[in-house]
């Protein structure tokens, strides 16, 4: 399984970008994106930025990853998935 990370672009030369997620920094390809600017949030799969994210979507993905980590460590993870409690999750428009 491959998980996408919501990373922030710190610097870019339009071909690659130095991105950050938490304490991790890595250089990733941004060749799939035409508007990968410094400060942008991007979804990174296997060291390739595949699409831009808005702040809210990046936060939700980050919280889900934090919840997964909490669950794997035997901790309560409900607070990380508060947006899912009380209603049926919906697929994003591009996956429908």
UniProtKB/TrEMBL annotation:
InterPro entries: Hydrogenase_HupF/HypC
Family annotation (Gene3D superfamilies): 2.30.30.140
Pfam families: HupF_HypC
Gene Ontology molecular-function annotations: carbon dioxide binding; iron ion binding
Residues in coiled coil: none
Highest taxon, organism lineage: Bacteria
Annotated GO biological process: protein maturation
Family (UniProt): Belongs to the HupF/HypC family.
Alphabetized PANTHER family for the sequence: HYDROGENASE MATURATION FACTOR HYBG (PTHR35177:SF2)
Protein name: HypC/HybG/HupF family hydrogenase formation chaperone
The organism's taxonomic lineage, starting at the top: Bacteria, Pseudomonadati, Pseudomonadota, Alphaproteobacteria, Hyphomicrobiales
């Amino acid at each position: 399984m491959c998980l996408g990370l919501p990373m922030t672009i710190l610097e870019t030369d339009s071909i690659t970008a130095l991105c950050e997620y938490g304490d991790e920094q890595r250089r990733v390809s941004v060749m799939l994106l035409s508007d990968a600017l410094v400060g942008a949030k991007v979804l990174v799969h296997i060291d390739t930025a595949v699409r831009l994210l808005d702040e809210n979507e990046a936060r939700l993905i980050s919280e889900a990853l934090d919840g997964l980590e909490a669950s794997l460590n035997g901790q309560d993870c409900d607070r990380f998935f508060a947006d899912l409690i009380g209603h049926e999750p919906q697929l994003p428009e591009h996956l429908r």
